[in-house]
Amino acid sequence: MALAAPPPTFASRPKSRAARMAQLVPAFVLIPTIITTGIYIFVFVGWNIYLSLSNSTLLPTYDFAGFDAYTRLWRNPRWTTGVWNLAVFGALYIILTTAMGVFLAVLMDQKVKGENLLRSIFLYPIAISFVVTGTTWQWILNPSTGLQAFVQSLGWENFEFTLITSRETALWAVVLAAVWHASGFVMVMVLAALRGVDRDMVKAGQIDGAGMLKIYRRIILPSIWPVMISVLIILLQFAIKTFDLVLALTHGGPGIATTFPAMFVYDRLFAAGELAQGAAAAVWMLIGLVVVFLPIGALHLVMRRQKGGAK
Amino acid sequence: MTAATTNIPDLTRRRPLTGKQIAGRIALYATLLILAAFVLMPLAVIILNSVRFNEDILRESFIGWPTRLTLENWSVAWGEACINASCTGVKPYFWASMLMVVPATVISTALGLLNGFALTKWPMPFAGLVFVVITIGVFLPPQVVLLPWAIALSWLGLSKSLAGLALVHIIQGTCFTTLFARNYLINLPDDLIKAARIDGAGFFRTFWRIVVPLSPPIIIVTIIWQFTFIWNEFLFAVTFSHSDFRPITAALMSLNADDTGVSEYGFGSAAVLIAAIPPLIIYFAGGRYFVRGLTQGAVK
Q1: Mutant choice from A21, A30, A97 vs B, greatest count of B C-beta within 10 A
Q2: Residues of A (25-54) whose Cβ lies below 8 Å from B
Q3: Among B38, B81, B37, which residue's Cα sits nearest to residue B265?
């Protein structure tokens, strides 16, 4: 009979107008996000690039001025100092936060009593805003009110702790507050990865008489690499976007000793009335992010391939 | 016979620790406690200062044990402290943040879940491309869209308003929530969705009846992260706000920068704590989910 209906499949097989419409629903659901995200990413970034090539000052104008803003940008010591600070801060921040986080995770992995409480303590700074973090550390590090005054009041009258007020060391104050903020986060990520390590492999290593150090290097580290890459990407993001923490902590000072690219962008756009230069600085931030991310992304892909191939 | 059995190590019974192991345990706990004390120190210091008299803080130091207690700092910080020459305390800024954060969190979470479902469980021609674009949206530095946002918001008549700021957070936040939801829903068994479709359930029906009931873990994680992120966010908050409407992070920065002679550390500390309390409550109440969001969302 004509009832020889095909077996039900899930390939799109439009039966009626209504059924065809129903199949479009998921696409319609996505459309608002596709449009807004598309505008936000492609139109806005393109617009910003165009403005960086214009001669906009206080108000946006669309007269093409070439790379004028870019040349002026790299002659501006506030910008070059900011870029240099970001490089130094970024390296110190990422190395120290990762070292601290891994150290904490290894300690916490030794069957510690009260692990949940300790983990909550180490992680809470990540829930606190950079403004609050910066303000609090500024009060603590300020020599006239904070740690220096405290130690002097205990009797050591000659004690000096001018980390935050000295040009040479102020960047370390930013590093200190930033490491305080994110080490717990690294610890939690690494700890979760350590818990995912194949226990049988570790046992086999122990039976073979490998020392703790060797087990960490040969068995555990290789299997937590993917998490380390995620950690690296997230910390890099934090570093490049560094803005509110420094604003609250040092306001970029003393002088311009702790100024950062993100601060420069904000200052040019909304205080100095140099829209084109601010936009150009923002484009450089994007370029920086892409340049740093590409090798990491490539590394991630290569390692995934290798992992997939080994299976 | 007995000699033979003792040669087999008894793995079930805990052996007494050797002297070296005991020393190791002591060193381990000592290190952990010292580091925990260091991490807790800033919070402890501002909590103590929020109940100290300002003259005590100025006379002794910012770090110190309260010799006498006061709760006045809290009421001054909440309702009287002057920020940018308007003496209203942080109260209006606290509520401005709430008014912006709650709708932005709810809307971006709902949109993210819907998008995640559409991307993972329905055949879609450009699903892969959409996923890539959304990922870019998560990583884009906000500075590079700051100026276009400012111009666009003023065209829309939304510049420096609560609605404008909420809109920015919804659009940017939806990239993040979609990524989160997608990573969660991709592990949901396809058979469930197929069964619903055989029964004739459409997109929204399947979403309500099957996806939402199975998604509380990711919904909670997303709400926790969106709330914390938007509440703590500063760059957009300061750029797209106005003296009539200013989120608490932006107000706090003005308070901090207002160096008009006498430093009011007492109510300053209380104000800082008021700004930190909502995310801290969420963090401690959501504990497990907060950590899960970190480890799952970020790894994938």
Answers
A1: A30
A2: 25-27, 29-30, 32-34, 36-38, 40-41, 43-45, 47-48, 51
A3: B81
Say if residue A6's pLDDT is above 80: no
Can you give the pLDDT at residue B259?
A: 53
Q: Does A296 score more than 70 pLDDT?
A: yes
Q: Quick one: tokens of A223?
A: 């299997």
Residues of chain B in contact with residue A157, where contact means CB-CB under 8 angstroms, are none
Cα nearest neighbour of B168 on chain A: A40
C-alpha A249: how far from chain center: 19
Q: Which two tokens stand for residue A248?
A: 């609250």
pLDDT band at B6 (very low <50, low <70, confident <90, very high): very low
In which element (H, E) is residue B87 found?
strand B86-87
- Interface list for A 59-78 with B (CB within 8 A): 60
Q: pLDDT-derived band of residue B97, with 50, 70 and 90 as boundaries?
A: very high
Comparing A50-54, B69-73, B150-154, the range with the smallest average pLDDT is B69-73
Cα angle, residue A97 at apex, residues A144 and A202 outer, rounded to 5°: 145
> What is the residue type of B254?
S
Q: Which residues of A touch B290 (CB under 8 A)?
A: 123, 127
Query: Quick check: A110 and B28 CB within 8 A?
Result: yes
Selection from A126, A274, A44, A91 nearest residue B142 by Cα: A44
Residue appearing with tokens 């108000």: A59
